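Example complex used in Figure S2.
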Amino acid sequence: MIQVGIDVGAKFIKVVLIKDGKVVVKDQTASGFEGKENVKTLYDQVLQQAGISPDEVDSITSTGSGRKVVDFATKSITDVTAAAKGATSLYPEVHTVIDVGAEEGRSIRCNQDGKIVDFAINEKCAAGAGAFTEAMARALEIPLEKFGELSLNSTKEIPMNAQCAVFAESEVVSLLHAKTPKEDIAKAINDAVASRITSMVRKVGFVKEIALIGGVAYNIGFIKSLEADLKDKIIVPEGPEYVCAYGAALITN
Amino acid sequence: MAKEFWRWKEYNWKSEDIDWKGGTTISAGVDVGSVSSQSVILVDGELFAYSNMRTGSDSPMSAQNAMNWALEKTDMKLENIHYVVGTGYGRVNVPFANKTITEIACHARGANFMYGNTVRTLIDMGGQDCKAIQCDEKGKVVNFLMNDKCAAGTGRGMEVFADLLSLSIEEVGELSFQIDEEPEPVSSTCVIFAKSEATRLLRDGWPKNKVLAAYSSAMAHRVVTLLERIGIQKDFAITGGIAKNIGVVNRLQKEIGIETLKTDYDTQIAGALGAALFGKVLAEKARK
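Predicted assembly (541 residues):
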């Protein structure tokens, strides 16, 4: 049986192909401006890599904020459903799934069977999403990939006053002018995003174990800040940005 | 250095008709905002001089600079002023102020002077915040709501767009009407999201002015949601820097179906003007 999951996010499209319950190929591309065409190109590529022809595919499930563009999908599910399914399938002991993407953050609480009990989403504002850290990395003039590690060098606790990414940018510039070391500012930013995510997690309540998925899970500094806030260990799967596509692939008609 | 499109002109002004030496009460108001600072000098309650400058990183210095600049065109000295009231987000940092009063109270009082005593609903669209204020015929605050958490609906948001589109902040209002058809607004909840939407639209081939129109309506809509929560009673007026942006003002008027009052005064000085008006009363009280 061949199952495909396609997650069309704000920044990236992710495709996962499962054959007889095992992930065979996973790949991604930028969402770009031609979302519909990019999805098709990536899908074809994944099939090619797997050596599978289109008529061998049993199911195609789409998810993500841009899932509507996948007009060849056999099923379409919400990001919340996909995230919960993906994370709890990987780790049956997980009951709280935190998914932080480029423009959205969500916290999902599941029961013993992996069924969703409650969830909260922020999709209105960049604070508490990857876009916030991205804007701050730009203001600090450091590559996003280095951001997490850099912040690990700091033990300082500088409070950020601004919630809004636009205001926070000015705050970062003021901190730089005041000769604050970049690692301290990076830590302050990770702390700020973590505290916003934490308040969302607390709103829905959390039960061990906790998993963090989505592209922001690559930010090791953010994970540390979040663990400190939640006072708990957080499980981060390999390829955290693929978990929603994986969850989608598992859900068929 | 790259051109800074958001940068607006700083200026000062002095009345040619008033001889301050003949005045009984000279009062001043200094409004240190998050983005701009103003200073207003009144002679017996008449507008004598004012200045408008960008706020620096140091609030006491910004207050001093704004005051000095308002005085610059006159032969008045700071010690000739009987009473100074500080207001705005940096009001506690006006070293020469006799008293500080919140900017909400000052804007309501300033609008009452600027637009007349029929103003009941006022929206102050500042650099980093937006306040919806209900006031009575004396310019006293009855109720207010404010957004200071988020750049959507503030002047700073518009500066971000002026920079993105490489258009001068002083022209964006006019330019947003040079379009064939009014587009759908971009995200009204977050400037960062609006910016990424705008980038997408530009790459799609949208002309700059059309993108500007889409942002101007988003901004107007954001402010309307604040207004609706407090309730809109006539007459309606706008103060702050965005009051000068017809791209936002006209779209806001259209959405609420109410015309805003017009004024010949500079809408950015409303806070400092209100502070100076309070200063006049306080100076007279102190003398009794």
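Residues 11-109+268-287 of chain B form a domain with the Nucleotidyltransferase; domain 5 fold (CATH 3.30.420.40). The interface with chain A takes residues 57, 128, 149-151, 156-157, 160, 189-193, 196, 200, 203-204 of chain B (CB under 8 Å).
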